[in-house]
What does this fold into?
Amino acid sequence: MSKTYKRFDAVEAVRKAQDTLLAINGAGKVDMNIARIFGENCLSIDTLKERLPASVWKTLKKTIRDNEALDMDVADAVAVVMKEWATEKGATHYTHWFQPLTGATAEKHDSFITPNQGGGAITAFSGNDLMRGEPDASSFPSGGLRPTFEARGYTAWDPTSPAFIMENEKGATLCIPTVFASWKGESLDFKTPLLRSTEALNQQAMRALQAFGQTDVKWVNATGGFEQEYFLIDQEYYYRRPDLMTCGRTLFGAKPPRGQELDDHYFGSIPDRILSFMFEVERELYRLGVPVKTRHNEVAPGQFEIAPVFEKVNVAADHQQLTMIVLKKVARKYGMVCLLHEKPFLGINGSGKHANWSFVTSRGANLLEPGDSPHENMQFLFFFTAVLKALYDHQDLMRASIASAGNDHRLGANEAPPAIISAYIGEQLDDIILQIRNGGITNSKKEGLLGLGIPVLPHIPKHAGDRNRTSPFAFTGNKFEFRAVGSEQSVSFPVTVLNTTVAQSLDELTTSLLAMQEKTGSFEEALAATLKKTYEEIHPILFHGDGYSVAWQAEADKRGLLNLKSTMDSLPYLTAEKNVALFEKYGVLSHRELDSRLETYLEQYFIKINIEAETTEEIVRTMILPAAFRYLDEVLKVNEKLSGAGMDGKLILKQAEEIHSNLSELLVHLDRLSKQNIELGGDTVPEKARHVHDNVLPEMNRVRVVADKLEKYMADDYWPLPTYREMLFVK
Ligand code: ADP
Ligand code: MG
It folds into this structure.
């Protein structure tokens, strides 16, 4: 019984999965009557309006629609409506749903039940229950903000994101989006700074709009549309891969002869089982009010993408979290596991999350949409430039906002944006910027360009900016697309950074514009001069070439752009003096809150790599070595028998020697890894993080290289781990 037939059981089970799953999930179509199901599990604005007393609705509407501060007096009335609505939907429990610094979401359920005097029970839910919760949440990372003696954290209702119902077969729970803070009011979550940054952006964008004479705009909000890439593999493989189960990625696995080279998966027809899964994911998301829109195969085999229609950024960020939750949940129903890790398979494309971002006014205008009139176009150029300036001024922060152990495998590899932050805006806009820098507009009217009709500013193309997949930050017609976000990450922090840095650059540009106008007396000239001055400084951030190329690394260096290759290189920038000042000035994060983020991110990094390294060691010791010993024994026996029979066993012996030498090499590296795993590198979190980066990771990689080589020498039926070929192609 030495052979690992178990692995073949898995393959066998996967082959039959289609039938099994059909039996479980039924053959019928899922109910896709969108008009009926969309938002049925989401407490929409319409429902609130319908059910709330008119005066309460009027007050609450100001908060939801117009970003005004919440009037606490509405809480009781809203609580009544919420409970009624939720119980009608079968909910027995409610939870304050929040986003701790782990990047996932958290919930602690309370039932609506309150015992009454007579020994029975009624259901109750008060304004207080709605407004504030006290999850016993002392185990969430706080980065030192909350010593255990003051461990309580509080959750508080965020009325701008709709409550929703999470269901399973047995029951339903009302989920109330909340922020999470310490008793001192310091943020312990991702949502609080996101909301604060949106407000900072609102204020500065409003100031800028005023300078443009737009006095009838009430607010500006950021919009987000987040595309999610993910892998699906059959759960039979997953359960036989301790690395996938504990780390979300494979720590071993030789590259199969056929990977993604043929590019035949990309946009190919979607396999049936996957398509059924997608239908059900979309249906669940529709019911939650998440407007998902597109689906397709991605580049790697087993890789797919889902994208929503954009929404106000706070709601979009919550919906992004829900999308990840639903993907994982529904995959299980179809006998699969959804892998959200940035790099589940070495040598195969990783997964990202494209964060599409723009801003919208209370009048519904997209500020990054080139307009029809000269005035609109001047305004477009101003806001467009503000974003590019933000990117240039804060490359470090943008890079740090997406740093994680998982994303390190992606950024800078030849498949994802490089670790260098630059922007792609398309040739036409690039040409316009050149004209602005040169100060004279030479542009004769090109086709498709909108004339500004004034001498100092050039023509603006509509829907310019085409595709350059190698750029981390691209202008795509009427929005920017930040492509370097990792697939597993919360979008909240990168968006917080984007909002805050753009708020600052709008602030600075507006100040400069107004001062210049004062001096020259002409708004157009002041604008042209402000833009010219800005581009003189920030033009190195614009890059239209191949971001994957080696030449770009050298060129970026010449331009003085940062190239922060790893999490450990980039995270320390979070608390650089200029960044502390930035976040404090716009009231987004205090120095202490920023310190706590740095500490938490480093801790997460250290813990993740530590788990990977220990899992690597364990898999080699308990699975790979035993299999290799058995196989070596078998080869040696053949050799022995051959010589017993008087036959020449030289070549067989050579085979044994090959395995033996790989095995010995593996043992040497395993020993080194083991020693590094025992070391901590120091007592502080930064020291530990440094240690795993400098010493543990390289040893782990060396172990993998040898183990993957060994896989290619071993008898297939001895190899204990499902192979890349099986996981990626047998479905
Ligand atoms: P692709 O990038 O694949 O070509 P699209 O350009 O249609 O696809 O859109 C990609 C994503 O960008 C979608 O999720 C979409 O909702 C989002 N998006 C479009 N316009 C905006 C906007 N103004 N603000 C934020 N996101 C947007
Ligand atoms: Mg896109």
